Structures are given as C-alpha cells and as structure tokens.
Amino acid sequence: MVSSDQRRRQLAREKYVRQQQRREEKRRKDKRRNTVVAAVLAVVLASGGAVYASVALSDGSEKGSDNTAGDTPTTPAPSPSQESDNPEPKLTVDQKATYEMALRTNTGDIAITMDASKTPRTVNSFKHLADKKYFDGSKCHRLTTQNIYVLQCGDPQGTGTGGPGYTIPDENLDALGKAGSDGAVTFPAGTVAMANTGQPGTGGSQFFLVYKDTKLPPTYTPFGKIDAAGLKAVQEVAAAGVEGGAGDGAPKKAVTIEKATVTKK
C-alpha cells in the first residue's frame, strides 16, 4: 500500500515534471535569457586578447527553481519542498556559529565546514533542505576536468535543471579577493560554492566542489570548505575522468549522495 508520504512525494514529482516542461517551452522561446548552460564558456580577456575557460555554473532553470554550478545534476524525485514558488526558508540558523554539512556518498564521506556568519542564508537553506532529506539519493551529475576543476551536485532531478522552488541571494562574493585583469579570482581546491544561472541572486540547491585550484569570475557564493578526506575522495572521482573521455560531463565514477546532514559544530 502506498503511504500518504509516498503519495505526497509522487504528486510533488508529477507537479515538478509539469513545471519543468513549461519552463523548457519558455526557455526555447527565450534562448538569450538562458544561454548560460552546462558548457565551457570562452571568455575573452581585455588584456592581450587572451582567453580563459569558465564553466557556466548554472542549472539552466528559471528563477523560482534551483540553480547551481553546472547545468546537469541528476538526483531522485523531488520532495514536496520542491514545489515552485516556495518562499525562501525562514532564517533559523545561529548566525554566529559554524555548521558542518556531512555528505555520505558511495565513494567516500565528504565533510564541509560552513560559516553562518559569512553566508547565513546559504547555510540556512542547506540546513533546511538537508533536514527534509532533499539531497538523499541524489547524484553528482557533472564533472569538469579541463580549464576548471569541479564536481557539481545538488539537483534532485539529476538533469541540471532541478531546484527547491526558491532562490537565495549571493553572499560573501569578495571572500576570494578582487578579480584580476582577466575578470577572475582563484577558487582554491577544497572550496564549495553555489552555482547559478549566470544572473545575480539565482542560487538554489546546486553547488560545486572544487578539487583543484580553478579560475572563475567572483559571481559564485563560496560558502564552505571540504575536509582533507573529502577532498581526496573528490579528487579520486576526478582522476577516473568523464564518461566518454570528454572534459565536461557525467563522472565515469558515479557519485551518489546517500545521505546529507547539516549540524551545528
């Protein structure tokens, strides 16, 4: 017999699919607005015409759904908290405290330290979603191994278009220093940051784990730091490469977040 909780999840899933179909139709009509997708974007620098590669760290979805590093995260069916037009969760975390997001994955445990004094709304959102088991069973859908070095996770759909139905503002964007003449800053290995659609204030649930120093524009909220064991686990996934031998796509060594928890340290 189907439980009431399972039925609610099923209804939420069906509603989410309908919403995604409508959004896809709108995206096709408005390609310019959604040109930032999961791909490598060549950015021409002002000085000398040099270029550096920058990932479109976004989920390609509209405001009101989730946005994150990359455009292709895949995870389990959405929970009721993923219905569209949800308000941002009420701020309940201790803004003077440090929190830990523990990701138990099939490839190793990853512990991420988050400072709520610097990114209170981001930390609050992750605690809200983790408490609802939003990430449990989801896949880290995207790995990049050329020019930028990140593993992207956080989409319960595993398509790069999923999200919680609300967005959160950018925070702590100056934490990594001022952008250089190339318009970029260095995201050190071990950094965890939010993905977005390429527009300000469009973070959702998708995030990326930097496993090797990476140059990116300072437009992605850096909100956490991976522990040594977790970084090693991500680097081992990266070493296995991308499916098909490409430099950007699903990791050959599949990564599933079996359980995610956020606790105050």
UniProtKB/TrEMBL annotation:
Q: Does the keyword Isomerase apply?
A: yes
Q: Which UniProt keywords apply?
A: Isomerase
Q: Where is this region: Disordered?
A: 1-34, 59-90
Q: Which residues form the PPIase cyclophilin-type domain?
A: 105-262
Instruction: Name the EC number(s).
Output: 5.2.1.8
SUPFAM superfamilies registered for this protein in UniProt:
Cyclophilin-like
Question: Kind of enzyme, top EC level?
Answer: isomerase
Q: Where is the composition biased (Polar residues)?
A: 66-84
Q: Does the keyword Isomerase apply?
A: yes
Biased region (Basic residues) positions are 25-34
The protein's GO terms of the molecular function aspect are:
peptidyl-prolyl cis-trans isomerase activity
Q: Which residues form a coiled coil?
A: none
For bias kind Basic and acidic residues, which ranges apply? 1-24
Stored PANTHER family: PEPTIDYL-PROLYL CIS-TRANS ISOMERASE B-RELATED, PEPTIDYL-PROLYL CIS-TRANS ISOMERASE-RELATED
Q: What does this protein do?
A: PPIases accelerate the folding of proteins. It catalyzes the cis-trans isomerization of proline imidic peptide bonds in oligopeptides.
What is the official name of this protein in its record?
A: Peptidylprolyl isomerase
Q: What organism, scientifically named, is this protein from?
A: Streptomyces bikiniensis
